[in-house]
Amino acid sequence: MTTAIAAPLRKRSGNSSASGARSLAAASRYPQSRLLHIVAPSLKVPDAAAASVFSAIRTRGPIARDAIAQLTQLSIATVNRQVTALLEAGILRERADLAVSGAIGRPRVPVEVNHEPYLTLGIHIGARTTSIVATDLFGRTLDVVETPTPSGTQSAALATLASSARRYLSRWHRRRPLWVGVAAGGVVDSATGYLDHPRLGWADAPVGPVLAEALGLPVSVASHVDAMAGAELLLGGRRSSPEAAGEAARTSLYVYARETVGYALSIDGRVHSPASGPGTIAGLPAQSELLGGSGQLESTVSDEAVLNAARRLRIIPAEGPSSTLSAVLRAARQGGSESGEKARELLADRARVLGEAVALLRDLLNPDDLVLGGQAFTEYPEGMPVVEDAVARRSVLGPRDIRLTAFGNRVQEASAGIVSLGGLYADPIGAMRRAQTRRSAGGANIAAV
Q1: Rounded to whole angstroms, how far apart are CA atoms 174 and 112?
Q2: In the 8-state DSSP scheme, what is residue 276?
Q3: What are residue 221's DSSP bridge partners?
Q4: Residue 226: which H helix or E strand, with range?
Q5: Of 38, 192, 225, 294, which sits most exposed with the smallest number of CB within 10 A?
Q6: E-assigned strands of 292-448?
Q7: Is the CB of residue 296 less than 8 Å from the CB of residue 285?
């Protein structure tokens, strides 16, 4: 994917009265959002009974009720109640064809997620490219399209974004959308769905209310790096299963780098999302003669910095169709050419600077788990030994495993997907009730598609 995203450049004060005022303004301007209100994203390992049962079925289904009880450590009576409620909500289905031969009674009939009728819509708003993603209830990407991030005035850009999302949903005739999740750079007010995005020139942009009004669906909006950490936590495979829930009582540091840089910290199975917005590592000290920059991390390691350096070193032309980061990567993978050697040195120096920044964060926070994401890492895996060496040399703590994101170059679509699914995973019965309310309200702009 080619999405470029913006790091937080300023913080909004965590003023609850300001959030309340924005909520009232949204409700008066966007009446649909009174009914289908903005829902703060749920980027955590769910622990409610229904959520635990659904998680067990999602990760292990088809599965019998007694096996669910063993996995979740809930009583069989509790499991039976939750399975019955989830079946009535339409999010599960029974598989009588898989029942154990000779078994008597429904508790021995396996159940599984009823995923075919539904989808969620994820939108990743980047500085240059916006990705629109359809995700199934397992968190699998059904389809993704990319479109230039709308330009022009803020209101016109949001109208264009909503129109694109509406057209995209109209293509899905056999699946009903349940939720919309938005992941974006800048500073997000998750309670109201408003966004400050200086790179786009957006200030107090009502992203959530505009989409809720246009699509007639619940909307959650999250910081993009927080969302990436949430995808790692809930969809990455290491902690998404019920038996791994105990492992979630750890800390995990997620470091992102591409056009911008950012980090997120997960504590005890929950992404830490300060009310005043995410912190920033853009201004961490960094030095590289090859890359240049202003002595700060983001201006030194960004895609733009790499491109400028590659043009200055004549690895790629100053302009034209070959003046791209992909061309730099191709040059680095070529044989013994002079431009190839320069490209490898350039990308290795970027990896060194990133590794030193990771070491600083690691020493400061000392997480149990350290994950690197973003195309600065995943598009050039040849640089990972340099990153690891820089971390080892700069860190004052003992050795620690470093792993790349489970999503590779699809991290942007995964981040949008988990924001659209987090509410469902945290409260599957409540999420389905919201969907049913939308269907029966009669005022939604999109019927079941």
Answers
A1: 19
A2: T
A3: 182
A4: helix 224-235
A5: 294
A6: 369-373, 403-404
A7: yes
Reference 77, options 66, 87, 88, 86; nearest CA is 66
Tokens for 382, please give them: 């040849």
- Rounded to whole angstroms, the Cα distance separating 258 from 376 reads 5
Task: Confirm if 74 and 98 have CB atoms less than 8 A apart.
Answer: no
What are phi and psi for residue 129, nearest 5 degrees? -130, 140
Q: Which amino acid is at 346?
A: L
The DSSP bridge pattern shows strands 141-148 and 219-223 to be unpaired
Sign for the CA dihedral angle at 131, 34, 43, 151 comes to positive
Residue holding tokens 């396996």?
110
* Contact in structure between 297 and 311 (CB atoms under 8 Å): no
Counting DSSP H helices and E strands in the chain, the numbers are 16, 15
Tokens of 131: 């990705």
pLDDT along the chain (449 residues), means of 10: 35 51 61 65 94 96 94 96 96 90 68 97 92 97 95 95 97 95 93 92 96 94 96 77 54 94 94 84 94 92 95 95 95 89 97 98 95 96 97 93 94 96 96 74 44
How many CB atoms sit inside 10 A of residue 15's CB? 12
Q: Torsion over CA of 317, 321, 322 and 324, rounded to 10 degrees?
A: 90
Name the token pair of 443: 């005022």
Neighbours of 277 (CB within 10 A): 21
Q: Which secondary-structure segment (H or E) carries 239? A: none
* The token pair that represents 124 in the structure block: 């990743």
Q: What is the pTM of this model?
A: 0.87
- Tell me if the bond preceding 62 is cis, omega within 30° of 0: yes
Any idea what the Cα angle at residue 368 is, between residues 367 and 370, rounded to 5°? 70
The dihedral built from the CA positions of residue 173, 215, 155 and 263, taken in this order, carries a sign that is negative
What the block records as the tokens of 310 is: 């590659």
